[in-house]
Every structure is written in structure tokens, then in C-alpha cells.
Amino acid sequence: MSLLDHTLEELHQMLVNKETTSEQIMEEVFRRIEETDEQVGAFLTVTKEEAMEKARQMDKEGIDENNVLSGLPIGIKDNIVTKGVLTTAASKMLEDFVPIYNATVMDKLEAAGMISVGKLNMDEFAMGGSTENSAFKITRNPWDLNKVPGGSSGGSAAAVAAGQVPVSLGTDTGGSIRQPAAYTGLVGMKPTYGRVSRYGLIAFGSSLDQIGPITRTVKDNALVLNAISGEDEKDSTTHPGEAPDFTEGIGESVKGLRIGFPKEYVNEDVIDPGIVKAVRAAIAKYREMGAIVEQVSLPHSDYAIASYYILASAEAASNLQRFDGIRYGYRAEDAKTLEELYVKTRSEGFGDEVKRRIMLGTYSLSSGFIDEHFVKAAQVRTLIRQDFEKVFENYDMILAPVTTTTAFNIGGRIEDPLAMYLADLMTVSVNLAGVPALSVPCGFSNGLPVGMQLIGKHFDEKTLYRAAYAFEQATDHHKQKADLNGGEAK
Amino acid sequence: MSTGITEEQVREIARLAKLEFEDKELPVFADELENIVEMVEKLEQVNTKNVPGTYHGIVLDSVMREDKAEEGTDRDELFSNVKETEEGFIKVPAMIDNGEAGA
Questions:
Q1: Do residue A194 and residue B57 have CB atoms under 8 angstroms apart?
Q2: Model confidence at B103: pLDDT above 60
Q3: What is the domain partition of chain A in residue ranges?
Q4: CA A141, A144, A149: angle at the middle one, nearest 5?
Q5: Helical ranges in A184-303 per DSSP H
Q6: pLDDT of residue B100
Q7: H-helix or E-strand containing A347?
Q8: How far apart, in whole angstroms, are the C-alpha atoms of residue A278 and residue A54?
Q9: Are the CB atoms for A455 and A398 separated by under 8 Å?
Q10: pTM beyond 0.90, yes or no
């Protein structure tokens, strides 16, 4: 058994009891990365020296008994800026960008004593669902190396699933934490919009983006969300006041909990029967534990993808204007005029998918189409949000599948952007509505992990953790581990 | 309404977005964009009369802070990712194309 098979709480206890040291834990992280990352390809940058130095320092100063995360390792998605450490968003545009400041989440993790061990691969600027849009490398799913790990936080998921780190941070604009977590058998939280500061997150869709943890267990996830949440004067969209302790409801029964199951999300024409089966088994388990699960309706679900791709792309087209070759990042050579510099820099620096989104967004915002596209999409977004609000008048939580299939083959969808978009069917509504959703392992289909998502009321992540923990304790899906040697899942 | 996005339209959107494509890329992009636009035009089916738009993740009032001076970031540090500088300024090519490239 590797040190890294322990939960964060167990590792903390071992540090407090002096059964291990932070340095030993880091050594194990880097040994594991060296051993497996040639196959998996999760990391873009490994910060071994800095991490080892910090760990030794932490051991010398003594582990803080009251701080469960102190001295423990974490991996960071590469669209979160890290002071002095290369931050690329997996784009040629930022291939040499070394930020001079930290994202707020990095300062918060540091304050909690967590040690970043490196930066993780992703789809370029978080646009994609397979991590194949990275300008630098392919990341493979530790459960089956021929499959994608999902995306855009594919590196974040693969690193945890491969046992390289116990936890990572991802970001989720339309499912980019939950879908890779589902594809790799992990727990992934997309917090309520405003729960976690976006300061220092390289913006994609500013009204949709959130940072959240990917972990093996539910409690680990809540502990990390505790550390990164809260109001931030550098992000005016953060929720005012102190965030609650997300572990508080953990261990409480789900008896009497009212769960809605949207009928729109069981269409077997669109969703793999194996996934529907696993999710139905989860529903049966919740009923067995005393929860009330009833069918509900989210009537505008059919329009979520369309609304999402217009709004997210419009926001992206606007956000990505800043990449112009002037102040940082890639700069095209031999441009004769400023205009030429902009155009060449952007045409050479952005990959195809990013260009596609910028083009769609620009089109939707251009005169003649703005009412028909952008304004219409924003109105439909209101209806989608109201669908959720209506269900939450009578239910504490919604339970749904995360994905339409299990992890697909590398190269399987990359030629068909539309098919890739349509697969986001059940994740994008959550971002449009701004509500929190937790992806939780709920079984296997053909040897590959299946995830369900628990969707909550605004700022009610606590109920999601409570319900997910109860399910986790009643099942052993989370105890299954990817076998990198190519064997069957045990 | 169906779209039928033309190569000319792709070129015009690209101009607005400050991107350029090779001629052989234009038809591919026109097709892809057309497929996507057709998909999103499904929204026409939804009755949105009198529905206000949602443009933010959550409902928020304007957030104000006290108007007081704070220490800024050091200029050299700010310039650490700039490719070309001269006497404390960022160096760029000619702003106006007056026909004398490099002027």
C-alpha cells in the first residue's frame, strides 16, 4: 500500500503521530509521478524542488495539529495562476508565461499549509471534454490508457486516479470538473457560483467558471473546499461572509431527505443503458437508506446546450481578447504593423477549438445576431434557472447522471466538435443556473467508472456532501482503484 | 431561419475576432460553424416573451470598496513577461499602417 492511498485525514493523523513526515509524503508523490506519468501524462510542470523544500520546512516547524491539510500535497490545473511557476492553460499562447502573482485559491491553500507539487494538463483554456485540446500533450485515463480522462480538467482527474496526488484542483465552466471525475471514478465538486474566488483563474466564461476539488473520497473533498472557499475582495462575485464548515453534515443520516430525479435525464436513446442502470441502483440505495426519491422535471433541459454554447463562447470571445502579444504570452514574429501583430499572434497562438469558440462567440455578439442568439440564450438561461428553483421548492437535492457515456477512446470524438458539445447535456445546466453539483462514483459499466451528480440549492454544498458521504459509506465504488498495469478493475 | 454560413461571413467574423484563416481552412470552418449555429437555433422554439435575461452567475448588487490609494505593483515586475521593451515602455510595431512598414 502506498502512503498516498490514505485519506487526507489519515495522512494528517500520521503526521501528527510522527509516523511519517511531509518530506516522505512528497517523496512518494514524486516517485509515483516518475513511475507513472510517462504513461498517464497528467502533469505539464512538476515543482519538485520547491515542494520538497517546503515539506522539509513544514516538518522542521512542526505540523499544525489543528490544520488537517498542513504538509499535504496537491496538484493544480494549469489555468490557475501560480506565482513564479509556469502557467500555460495548455496553450501555445502562454507557453512561457510565468505569473507574478498567485490566484486567491493558491494563497488560501498555502495558508492551510498545502503544498503544490505541479501543474496539470487540460484542454486549452478549459475548452473541451477530453484534454485532447491541450497544445502540449495527451493525458490518458488510468482505468484504460486508450481512453480519454475527460476534460477539461483531465490532468487533474488522471493525477488523482493514478495515485500521484491525493487531491487536485480543477475548474468547471460546463462540466469540466464533474465529467472527468465521473470518467475516472472520483469525487468532483463544482461549487455554487460565487463560493470560490475566481481571482487568478484564467477566465473562460466568467459568469459560469468555478474552481473546485477532485478527490478520491467525499470527506477529502469537503476539507479542501473548506480551505479554498470564501469572500474575496479581489473577486466581487464571491459570496459575502464566511463560508460554512462543509464537513458538518457528514455522517448524518439521509432519512427523509427529498431527492428529485429528472425524467429528462433517463432517455436511453441518448444515455448509455449501463449509466442509467448504475444511477438507478444509486436511487435504490438512497431509498433503502430512507431518502425519498421522486421523479421531477427540468422542462428546458433540451435547450441547455444551445444556451450554454452561445453564452460561454460569447464570454470567451470577450475574455480572450486580452491575448494580443503585447504584455505577456506568445508574440508573433515579423509583424509589420500593430494590427498584423494582433492577428498573427492570435492565429498562431490559439488552437482550433479555441478559435472555434471565439468565432461562435463573435458571431453571436455581432450586430444582426445579438438579439436572436445572445439575448435569446440569456433568456433561456433564466428559464433553466427557474426549472431548478421550482424543483428545489419541494426537494433538497437533485440526482442525475453526469455523462451520456463512460470514457471514450482517444481520438474518438475530436473530429466532430458538435458530438463533443452534445455530450455535455447533463452538466451545463448546473453552470447556467449557478447551483452546486458534486460528481460521485456510483458504479461501473464495462469496467469503466460511472458517476452520478448530486445537484443542490445555491450555497447548499453541505447537503450534497452529507448525501454523498452516506452513499459512499454504503457502497465500495470509491475503494476501486485504477490498475495502470492494464488489468481489469478489481 | 436557416443560416448557410458563407466563407465570406467566416472571413468577416474572423476580422472582428482578429483571427485569420488560410483559404483552405475557410470552408471547413464555415461548415463547422454552420452545424453549431443550426444546433443553437433550436432556441427559437422557446417562448421567451417577457422573460428577462440572466447574464450573471448569481444575483448581485454592485460591489463597492473604499476609494483609497493602495501600493501598486512594481513596474519591472509587471514587465517580466513583456517580450520587447525600450526605456521602460513596451515596444510594438507601427500603430498606423501608413504604407511605410516599420515607420
A1: yes
A2: no
A3: 3-260+393-479
A4: 20
A5: 218-228, 273-288
A6: 55
A7: helix A338-349
A8: 43
A9: yes
A10: yes
C-alpha cell of residue B67: 476609494
pLDDT number for residue B3: 61
Q: Rg of the Cα trace of chain A?
A: 21
Rounded mean pLDDT of A241-251? Answer: 95
pLDDT on residue A182: 98
Mean pLDDT within A101-129 = 98
Residue A183 has pLDDT above 80, yes or no: yes
Assess B59–A contact: CB distance below 8 Å, yes or no.
no
Q: What is the mean pLDDT of residues A452-471?
A: 98
Tell me the three cell numbers of residue A173. Answer: 465552466
Out of A152, A168, A197, A313, which one is annotated catalytic? A152
Q: What is the DSSP letter of A244?
A: P
Catalytic residue among A22, A54, A70, A77: A77
Q: Helix or strand or coil: residue A226?
A: helix
Domain ranges in chain B? 7-45
A445 among known catalytic residues: no
Nearest chain A Cα distance for residue B12, angstroms: 9
Classify residue A210 by its DSSP letter.
E
Q: Read off the amino acid at residue A243.
A: A
Please tell me what DSSP assigns to residue B103. -
CA distance A364 to A255: 47
Tell me how far apart the alpha carbons of residues A316 and A283 are, in angstroms, rounded to a whole number: 37
Q: What is the mean pLDDT of residues B33-53?
A: 91
CB A425 within 8 A of CB A305: yes
Q: What pLDDT, on a 0 to 100 scale, did the predictor assign at position A398?
A: 98
Strand runs (DSSP E) across A51-142, as ranges? Answer: 73-77, 115-120
Secondary structure class of B3 (helix, strand, coil): coil
d(CA A391, CA A329): 45
Give the 3-state secondary structure of residue A485: coil
What pairing do the DSSP bridges indicate for beta strands A292-296 and A258-262? parallel
Backbone φ, ψ for residue A209 (5° rounding): -65, 140
Q: Which residue of B has its CA nearest to A459?
A: B58
CB contact under 8 A, B101 and A336: yes
- Any catalytic annotation for residue A70? no
- What CA–CA distance (Å, rounded) separates A165 from A331? 35
Give the separation between CA A171 and CA A386, rounded to whole angstroms.
Answer: 24
Separation of CA B82 from chain center: 21
**Percentage of the residues of chain B whose pLDDT score is greater than 90:** 50
Angle at A320 between CA A343 and CA A193, to 5 degrees: 170
Between strands A258-262 and A397-401, the pairing is parallel
When pLDDT is averaged across residues B10-28 and rounded to a whole number, the result is 94
Residues 6+ apart with CB under 8 A from A433: A384, A385, A387, A388
Domain with residues A3-260+393-479, CATH architecture: Alpha-Beta Complex (3.90)
- By C-alpha distance, the chain A residue nearest B52 is A379
Residue in A326, A329, A382 closest to B53 by CB: A382
Give yes or no: A77 in active site. Answer: yes
- Residues B8 and B36 sit within 8 Å (Cβ to Cβ): no
> According to the model, what pLDDT value does residue A241 have?
84
Distances in Å between the Cα of A255 and the Cα atoms of A251, A292, A434 are 12, 8, 27
Of the candidates B16, B18, B39, the beta carbon closest to that of A418 is on B39
Residue of B16, B49, B58, B62 to mutate when probing chain A, most A C-beta within 10 A: B58
Higher pLDDT, A362 or A270: A362
